[in-house]
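Box S1 | Example of a co-folding query
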Amino acid sequence: MVNRVCIIGLGYVGLPSAVLLAKHGVEVIGVDIDAERVAAVNLGRITTNESGLDQMLRDVVSSGMLRAQDAPIAADAFIIAVPTPVTADYTPDLSQVRAAVNSLAYLLEVGNLVVVESTLPVGGTEMCCEWLAEARSDLSFPHRAGESSDIRVGYCPERVLPGNTLFEMTHNDRVMGGITPACSMAVSQIYQVFSRGACHTTDVRTAELVKLVENAYRDVNIAFANEISNVCNALSVDPWLIRDIANSHPRVAMLRQGPGVGGHCISVDPWFMVHSAPDETPLVRIARQVNSDKPRRVAEQVISVCKTVEDPVIACLGLAYKADTDDLRGSPSISVIQQLGESFHDRLLIVEPNIAALPSELAGYAPGLVDLNTALEGANVIVLLTDHKEFHRVSWKQLSGKGIVDTRGIWRKNPNCGVDT
Ligand code: SAJ
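Box S1 (continued) | Returned holo structure for SAJ
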């Protein structure tokens, strides 16, 4: 029976997991190294783009089922949900997982469960077991002791789409890897408290690779769409029309081209797979390169459109990597604007309805943010980077006579937009 769970990392995965467990009657201690975040959680004052989360957080904080602090305490189970980025040479950086493991190791008691939710390379959970065993030679761990171990250890990656987190966390299937079958069962008992999806229990290496496969699958398929858009631009063919007609084939389902792949998952996790099997992953590596190169291609396209207008002033619409959010992590818009800012600094009008000020990465590249109407009135080149709802409402009249680069294809039925989008 799990009475108390300690969740280390109160980010976009740890916080909703904490809230859902608390909502279903488990006492949750949320741990974060960010003192401001800890204070905000304890006041029930986190604002997210996640429907229902802010209210549910207030409920579980006021009922006393969730509280946040800067260090873990003794619990029945510990869940690690900290970031696992890649280094500059695309090697997985597990330093935050290691710090979390070290912070909880001294609290472990016989019968406890440790679950990693952070994305790991294959073999990462076994590595966590090694770290735990190094810190606690008085306890036995399942990678050596098997089913008779004092501590259970497992891996349960998140699979939620940011923006729809609470729904997907509740309804998506989960994959639950255990170092031993009893570890998998222990992991599934925790998540079944709130998860309504099917529970695929398996070994840790399978669970680790499944997570990497899902995001690499999407990255490779987006890379295909992006490469086809490059082919279409070179051959002066409309890429959106190609996609529409190709997708009418019963066995073709192309994803959408875009300005590049943003976020912190799809652009990162494929490198974990490359790291885990470097000689077996040429396709995954090339897909990453195709997608990473897309912002440069978009900037080049904009520069060539600028050559067709007099005194170009460029409106860049959208900084977030995802529609209708303020999430700038890894956003390709930032990279496009940095490249345009080299030549057009004072002639860039940046619009992002979901944030109040230009992010620090763009300091020196553009003067500041403006509202949509100012940008549409002041610019003669319009670059659509994020498909926010406000931009869908732009009228054909507002675009008339301007150079258009629509990287998301939202205005493609507009006669003002050429095929070069
Ligand atoms: N994108 C395209 N074309 C498309 C689809 C997406 O260019 O057809 C771009 C988007 O514009 C965005 C990027 O890809 O820049 C990623 O966006 P996304 O909405 O597809 O995915 P994420 O990164 O927000 O969330 C992904 C999800 N993984 C999969 O769909 C396989 C989510 O389920 C994972 O939980 C999440 O990564 C994660 O945390 O790993």
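The chain has a mean pLDDT of 95. The chain has two domains: 4-213, 237-406.
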